[in-house]
Amino acid sequence: MKSEEIERLNTAMKETSDKRLYERYLAVRLRLEGHSFAEIGDLLGRVRQTISLYWQNYQKHGLAGLEMDHSPGQPTKLTEEQRSQLATMLERMNFSFTKATYTLAQADEDAQELFRKHNIC
């Protein structure tokens, strides 16, 4: 039974391009191979509790339990109204409240080419 589960995990690991999902598959595979939560956490740079959660989700839901519906992280601390007020205030100060997507308007093309020629292998 364990060897079949390990084989399914190996297949899933080969098929995914999501590195976080790969890590979850690997954690469960290592657990099936007999490693402790603490050992797996040390190997993957995660706390023992995180590895335990991966395992519990796998036990309850199989491979599907390891998939994420959303990116985990700390919830926003600002309400929508606060975010709107902040955006308005920053806009008045000529700042942007969005992810930076600008390019350097005064970039020297020749200097950039010289830099690339000498610094990129």
TrEMBL record:
InterPro entries, sorted: Homeodomain-like_sf, Winged_HTH_dom
* One Pfam family, short name: HTH_23
Q: Where is the Winged helix-turn helix domain?
A: 83-118
Q: What is this protein called?
A: Transposase
Organism from which the protein derives: Paenibacillus brasilensis
